[in-house]
């Protein structure tokens, strides 16, 4: 250990997985250390080698500033590294159970290349204990090496916010941890060398894992509360945003907004914690009820739309609806776990024809992931209802007049994201 990594200056880093989390990290490390960005997706590697990032998290200019960064999909090239940082996805399966397959496969791969004294750092979101109970035994089995004697581990949860150009990897404080006190310090120093916002060294890997999984669980539960209040206020004929703005004048009122909870974090991470809780015999009440409520918002949205259409005597059966936005959040091309697809599905259950428009989304990706073929130019006077599902800047710039032109003479404009003023829409969440 001491000979190989007497200081982080000797680090030769491999980033495993070059998605929304891995690439920004690889770019920052690649400015200071020999860094290999590794991904099993050959076309992704070739795209980055050509100097472009399709996720738009890193600009072409930034990609060109990484003096020591190279890319590969060849496992053999990983053998020259001594620190491995794993940033693969941790999704849930159809039964809302953690799917650790990408992590296990990454660990099996690293078992073939890890050497004496190397450190494997995991960044993927997991439940407390997953690194040491699931990942490390895989590395040991494949490599034949002994954990905390021949190789070591760390955990530093990712805090990437896709599409956010203010909160970048370097200016978000980073939680770090290691499998021994010495390794924890090495991992902390490594991240501290690129994170200008500083680091917080947790006392153990489990504490760091738990911290990550509750960050998004807390947001999920808070949004669920506001979604439930929105349903109540809607039934009382009160505008939710006006209530939240009034309550928000109190200094300690938390400024959450109702909405669809999708994406790879908030709608997924709580299931990792509840899975672990259930495995030790505790059934979490609040977390799971919040998840159920948030997962049911698409049904609520379509129900409200149908009621509004009926009040205007617009025939629902065979109606045509335009859904504006498919990505899970504004000004971002990420469609992972987007809840807009649930709205599309609900609308189709009513025999409603649905067009989806999204300037940020790749049509090929929408088709591949959800079987949705995007509409590039929606026709004027064509729709019985329009749902503003994502608050992209392009939609804000259109304004109510241009958006309304897409609707028939009698139509409903439903704003889920408070893009437009109250007086310019028929209903809002």
Features:
429 residues; alpha/beta; six-stranded parallel sheet; five-stranded parallel sheet; 14 helices; 13 strands; 38% helix; elongated
Question: Would you mind describing this structure in some detail?
Answer:
The protein has 429 residues and is of the alpha/beta class. The chain contains 14 helices and 13 strands. Strands 3-2-1-4-5-6 form a six-stranded parallel beta sheet, sandwiched between helices. Strands 10-9-11-12-13 form a five-stranded parallel beta sheet, with helices on both faces. It has helices spanning 22-29, 42-49, 60-63, 101-111, 130-143, 181-192, 205-236, 240-247, 269-279, 286-295, 297-311, 340-349, 363-370, 393-404; strands spanning 13-16, 35-38, 69-72, 83-86, 119-122, 152-155, 174-176, 199-201, 320-324, 353-357, 383-388, 407-415, 427-428. α12 links the parallel β9 (320-324) and β10. It is elongated and about 75 Å long. The termini are far apart. The chain is 38% helix and 13% strand.
In short:
The protein is an alpha/beta fold and 429 residues long. It has helices spanning 22-29, 42-49, 60-63, 101-111, 130-143, 181-192, 205-236, 240-247, 269-279, 286-295, 297-311, 340-349, 363-370, 393-404, and strands at residues 13-16, 35-38, 69-72, 83-86, 119-122, 152-155, 174-176, 199-201, 320-324, 353-357, 383-388, 407-415, 427-428.
Helix content: 25-40%
Note the overall shape: elongated
Low confidence ranges:
none
Measured distance between first and last alpha carbons: 56 Å
Looking at the chains present, what oligomeric state does this protein adopt? single chain
β content, as a range? 5-15%
What Rg, in angstroms, do the CA atoms define?
A: 24 Å
Structural class: alpha/beta
Q: What is the average of the pLDDT values?
A: 93
Q: The biggest beta sheet, please? A: 6 strands, parallel
Q: Tally the helices: what do you get?
A: 14
Order of helices and strands, N to C?
Answer: EHEHHEEHEHEEHEHHHHHEHEHEHEE
Number of separate strands: 13
Biggest sheet, spatial arrangement of strands: 3-2-1-4-5-6
């Amino acid at each position: 250990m001491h000979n190989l990594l007497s200081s982080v200056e000797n680090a030769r880093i491999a980033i495993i997985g070059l998605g929304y989390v891995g690439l920004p990290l690889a770019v920052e490390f690649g400015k200071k250390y020999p860094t290999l960005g590794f991904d099993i997706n050959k076309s992704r590697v070739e795209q980055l080698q050509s100097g472009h990032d399709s996720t738009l998290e890193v600009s072409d200019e930034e990609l060109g500033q990484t003096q020591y960064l190279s890319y590969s999909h060849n496992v053999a090239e990983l053998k020259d590294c001594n620190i491995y940082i794993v940033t693969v996805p941790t999704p849930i399966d159809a039964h809302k159970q953690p799917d650790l397959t990408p992590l296990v496969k990454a660990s099996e791969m690293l078992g073939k290349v890890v050497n004496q004294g190397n450190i494997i750092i995991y960044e993927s979101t997991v439940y407390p204990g997953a690194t040491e109970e699931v990942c490390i035994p895989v590395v040991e089995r494949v490599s034949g090496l002994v954990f905390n004697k021949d190789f070591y581990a760390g955990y530093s949860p990712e805090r990437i916010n896709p599409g956010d150009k203010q909160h970048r990897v370097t200016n978000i404080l980073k939680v770090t941890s290691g499998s021994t006190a010495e390794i924890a310090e090495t991992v902390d120093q490594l991240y501290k060398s690129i994170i200008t916002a500083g680091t917080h060294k947790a006392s153990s890997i489990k504490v760091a894992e738990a911290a990550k999984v509750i960050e998004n669980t807390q947001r999920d539960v808070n949004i669920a509360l506001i979604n439930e209040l929105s349903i109540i206020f809607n039934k009382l004929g009160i505008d939710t945003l006006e209530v939240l703005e009034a309550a928000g004048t109190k200094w300690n009122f938390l400024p959450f907004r109702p909405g669809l909870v999708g994406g790879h974090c908030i709608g997924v991470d709580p299931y990792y914690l509840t899975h672990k809780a259930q495995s030790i015999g505790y059934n979490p009440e609040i977390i799971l009820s919040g998840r159920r409520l948030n997962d049911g918002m698409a049904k609520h949205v379509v129900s409200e739309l149908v009621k509004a259409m009926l009040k205007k005597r617009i025939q629902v059966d065979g109606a045509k609806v335009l859904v504006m936005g498919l990505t899970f959040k504004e000004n971002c091309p990420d469609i992972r776990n987007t809840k807009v697809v649930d709205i599309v599905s609900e609308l189709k259950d009513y025999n409603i024809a649905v067009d989806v428009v999204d300037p940020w989304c790749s049509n090929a990706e929408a088709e591949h992931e959800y079987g949705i073929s995007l509409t590039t130019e929606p026709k004027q006077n064509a729709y019985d209802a329009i749902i503003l599902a994502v608050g992209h800047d392009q939609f804000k710039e259109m304004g109510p007049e241009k958006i309304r032109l897409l609707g028939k003479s009698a139509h409903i404009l439903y704003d889920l994201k408070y893009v437009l003023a109250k007086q310019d829409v028929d209903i809002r969440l």
